[in-house]
Design goal:
It contains 14 helices and 9 strands. The protein is α/β, with parallel strands linked by helices.
């Protein structure tokens, strides 16, 4: 997720039990033009493995060159984003726009497959279709499989929906019953019950959690524990605070304090959602420029 799944948050999710983490969306054009900020998205640490580099673009040859360039950073797999609904991505013919151009989507996967070692894993993430009257996820998924994808991730909303409404998990089950490669389900996983329900209803091979992990990275731990003994673990205020402080410390290891204070605010909106006095707390946070002061505010809030 652009703006959220940076290295500090990925490390935190791995510590809480996420099996795999993926980079923020990385522009293929930016990679081949050696843009410093773009290339920085490909950097990761040993603690984040298995790590996937998620690419977006609309030109098959450029995407292939970018995927090949990624090998220098040694990710564990390449994920091709063909589902992003954000207009600045789709207007370039990338992300979710590729669901309306099956020929180009197939060319992209084939060229990337040719550019990478035969045993290097390539995944494709896509949606149910461009709009409700154009649900082509099944044909799209089968075509991605035939083009050389090793696994598929389906977010069963349309591109037009963006994140409105609810995801239709029946689409995941239908895709799973028609393809022979692994299918990962994505969409509306916000709790242990959601995770269990998706796997039971769809038969998917695994689940991907995106927005549901924001302000809630311990969800991975809760799901893993429930799989072991069917009990749901409550996370204490002290555990949440410890996680928040680690998030800040990890961010400070790779970014200057001024930038960390500004960027962490978007995460803190999720961490404090639903808290008593949350609106006042967020306002206080948004007017804080010091890490020391920010940690003090958070400690007081989560230890009440």
């Amino acid at each position: 997720m652009a703006g959220y799944t940076d290295r500090p948050f990925r490390l935190l999710c791995r510590e809480w039990g996420a099996d795999v983490v993926v980079s923020e969306m990385v522009s293929a054009d930016g990679i081949i033009h050696h843009q410093r900020q773009t290339l920085a998205y490909l950097e990761f640490t040993k603690g984040e493995r298995p790590f996937g580099a998620q690419l977006f673009g609309s030109d098959a040859l450029i995407m292939a060159k970018a995927a090949e360039a990624c090998l220098g950073y040694q990710p564990d797999f390449i994920d091709i984003n063909m589902g992003c609904p954000v207009k600045k991505v789709t207007k370039r013919g990338a992300g979710g726009a590729l669901m309306a151009d099956l020929i180009k989507a197939v060319q992209i996967v084939r060229e990337i497959r040719r550019a990478l070692p035969p045993d290097f894993v390539v995944s494709v993430k896509f949606r149910s279709g461009t709009e409700i009257n154009h649900l082509n996820y099944l044909d799209f998924g089968l075509a991605m499989q035939d083009a050389g994808a090793d696994l598929l991730t389906l977010h069963p909303r349309t591109v037009k929906q963006v994140f409105s409404g609810v995801s239709n998990w029946e689409h995941i089950a239908n895709l799973k019953s028609h393809v022979t490669i692994p299918v990962i389900g994505n969409g509306d996983i916000k709790s242990v019950d959601d995770a269990q329900k998706m796997q039971n209803e769809t038969g998917c091979d695994s689940i991907m959690i995106g927005r549901g992990a924001l302000g809630n990275p311990w969800l991975f731990y809760q799901i893993r524990q429930a799989q072991k003994d069917n009990n749901q673990r409550e996370i204490t205020g002290d555990q949440k605070l410890d996680s928040l402080l680690r998030h800040l410390d990890y961010a400070l290891q790779v970014k200057p304090e001024r930038l960390v204070v500004r960027e962490i605010r978007s995460h803190l909106c999720f961490y404090t959602k639903g808290m008593s006095g949350g609106a006042i707390l967020r306002n206080t946070i948004n007017h804080t420029d010091s890490i020391t002061e920010l940690k003090k505010i958070l400690t007081e809030a989560f230890r009440q």
